């Protein structure tokens, strides 16, 4: 409880707007949900461009997603998808240039992937969203 009281005190004293408060998380999921969920369909879409993508598979392959949400209820920073492998097809990069696609041997993120996402996605996209008169707080 002390952590949240200190955070609230910092926000109140400095006047940092909620659009400058962001939270990053990492989640791992099996592509397609695995064999027990072979009938399951996953849908991904963007509120801005209304593009819709559907994934249906019985694959057990792990995909890790780095995602970021803002305290104002928006998701101003595009995610990073980490696939297992060494290389990926160049046409994967045509989906959205602000999304980071990466590969690692295991499909888990690592320091290199996180730093690339932080530099390519988080910093420029969070700056566009945040009030430039206040610091950006990433929790």
Automatic annotation (TrEMBL):
<dbReference type="Pfam" id="PF03184">
    <property type="entry name" value="DDE_1"/>
</dbReference>
<feature type="domain" description="DDE-1">
    <location>
        <begin position="63"/>
        <end position="136"/>
    </location>
</feature>
<protein>
    <recommendedName>
        <fullName>DDE-1 domain-containing protein</fullName>
    </recommendedName>
</protein>
<dbReference type="InterPro" id="IPR004875">
    <property type="entry name" value="DDE_SF_endonuclease_dom"/>
</dbReference>
<dbReference type="GO" id="GO:0003676">
    <property type="term" value="F:nucleic acid binding"/>
</dbReference>
């Amino acid at each position: 409880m002390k952590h949240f009281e200190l955070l609230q005190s910092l926000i109140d004293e400095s006047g940092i707007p909620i659009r400058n408060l962001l939270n990053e998380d990492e989640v791992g999921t099996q592509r397609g949900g695995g064999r027990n969920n072979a009938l399951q369909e996953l849908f991904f879409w963007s509120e801005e461009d209304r593009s819709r993508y559907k994934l249906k598979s019985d694959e057990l392959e792990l995909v890790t997603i780095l995602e970021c949400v803002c305290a104002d209820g928006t998701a101003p920073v595009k995610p990073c998808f980490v696939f297992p492998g060494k290389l990926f097809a160049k046409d994967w990069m045509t989906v959205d240039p602000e999304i980071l696609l990466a590969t690692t041997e295991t499909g888990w993120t690592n320091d290199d992937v996180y730093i690339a996402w932080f530099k390519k996605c988080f910093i420029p996209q969070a700056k566009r969203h945040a009030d430039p008169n206040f610091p950006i707080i990433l929790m």
